[in-house]
Amino acid sequence: MKRYTLDHLRELETEAIYVIREVAAQFDNPVLLFSGGKDSIVMFHLALKAFWPMRLPFPLLHIDTGHNFPETLEFRDKLVEKHGARLIVRSVEDSIKQGRVKEETGINATRNRLQTVTLLDAIEEFKFDAALGGARRDEEKARAKERFFSHRDEFGQWDPKNQRPELWNLFNGKKNYGEHFRVFPLSNWTELDVWLYILLEKIELPSLYFTHKRKAFNRDGVWLAWAPFMKLKPNEEVVEMDVRTRTIGDIPTTGLTLSKASTLEEIVYEIATTRTTERGSRFDDKISDTSMEDRKRDGYF
Amino acid sequence: MATLTKDEIKQKVDELLDNYLNMDLLRFTTAGSVDDGKSTLIGRLLYDSKSIFEDQLDAVKRASLKTGADDINLALVTDGLKAEREQGITIDVAYRYFNTPKRKFIIADTPGHVQYTRNMVTGASTANLAIILVDARNGILEQTIRHAYIASLLQIPHVIIAVNKMDLVDYDEKVYEDIRRNFLSYAGKLDIQDIRFVPISALKGDNVVKRSENMNWYYGPTLMYILENIHIGSDYNHIDFRFPVQYVIKPQIDGYRDYRAYAGRIASGVLRVGDTIKILPSGFTSKVKSIDFYGEHLEYAFAPQSVAITLEDELDISRGDMIVRENNLPEVSQDIDVMVAWMGDSPMNIGDKYTIRHTTTEARCMIKDIVYKVDMHTLERVEDKSPLKMNEIAKVKIRTTKPLFFDSYRKNRETGSMIFINETTNVTVGAGMIK
Asked: Do A7 and B55 touch (CB under 8 A)?
């Protein structure tokens, strides 16, 4: 009886590919949001599978906060070159220069919220009508309410109380001019699913995910990477630690995990035995209990 | 972790991967009226199965204090949106993920107020099992019957009636038995293969994950035991081959200039290389040359795999066409009888036009007739041609702008389902199951 059944990682894979193809078919001008983190790398891998042997029928969009880990950017450029993909980069730095956003000040300043403006400007500039993202419902409680096809009004806003019902696998991508969709093919994946899939498919990742020595400091229980633009409080001390990242945002928002895991197997082992969620160390989620919902309403990833 | 060697870790992870790949996936939905304790039940399942991480639990504890609760409020585990926490209600369908060593679970938590039918149908459309909550103090309500009917209409194979809040009726066996008997009196009107009953208290934890010591009169399994052990056959029909073409792959790169493949997800059935196939609507036949997946050539593929098919002959095939087997054809028609669950703010009228989506096809349709509505108190058919309002269910006749290739929903969920879209607002306003 097992002959015609898929194990559940393959079932998630087949679902994600179906959704990605549906985007290419239903929209005129889709784009894949690419952050250089593991979820967007898995998305890229699934997109290659969906259209093989074609080149991807949509470009990648990276919103660069200007505070990225150099390892992320290097990895991104190599991946794009290897697969002949098209990459568009829009930077928060430019949005600041153009006066579209104002840099946050203070010790906990990040460009996390500013990214939303750069992202929405890029969507408008290129007239993208669908943006594929690697967000998962298990990540965060506001994301648990997200659809595969998530409608955004002409201001790029999400209205969680007024979402379209999503039935079977019949996705409704109809919209008016100027509106767009965010599409999340990994909706049903958990963090462990993503890691096991990476292991199973031998997907390459940026070196940041593996243990390395880095200058870091502890702020309110979260380890953050030191960089010249990071402002320190008087009691904060920079020390060199063995760390790796569990998610990748930019430097100010990425909490580091103290870890000596140097192989995928060791990482999976760590994840499988750990008792905190991956976003538990994300500084951007700690701002308030509903900070993800607030940012998503504005048009965040 | 420091005590394990690299080899030991590798071995453990290999075992984990192996176990994980052998785990089945149970998708279930939870339904109940407002205050039946659904969010608490889900919180309890997650909490007692140790699926809540420390930082999530901390957040819930903090939020519990804010609402003035003296104990941890498990309902807050699932209520994600600000308004939900403030008002203590669940607004939208939320999806939760957890696993035990035996299974992986996806819960579609569907709220029970205003848009109850819409939410329950949404959750049910992808579920293999439904838990319907009944408040022991209130017994079977119209909502309970409605939820059971929707589970039946959507063809969910297993339904569990969880009689909750047993702690508030002194764990009285008679209360439970009366509810059970009352529900079974409706069962004749439902088309559900498997109905089970469990007396629980989500708040206190009785019979959810741990056996209750307060109900010695109940000999059956706990809710979690059922979830972990109930037999779930394949959801997919592996008899009737149906392949709705989703996307045509034409690479404009050297080495593949002549390559042309039809990409899609197999809706049902099995396909092998060399099979003779027929294309709808053109009616041309050809043979399967290869089944491709990321450079791999498969000998066969089955539902629900996403693959790309190449054919021996060059034919004009595009999205919305369907590849089938010559001797096993779907129905082809423009006049279709559909059971419709209405979700739109504005009612459906005879003569109205809607956009429909069915497999990978988009078409328009006109509502020709409302044949009958289903009375949610009695589950009787009522002849009533008045407009179909939100939360109502009816059998309607539609005429489509082009022929659809379909099977009855009972026989094939994938080719028997459709959605109705309002052409002004673009909103999904109805769920249709072909008779």
From this structure: no
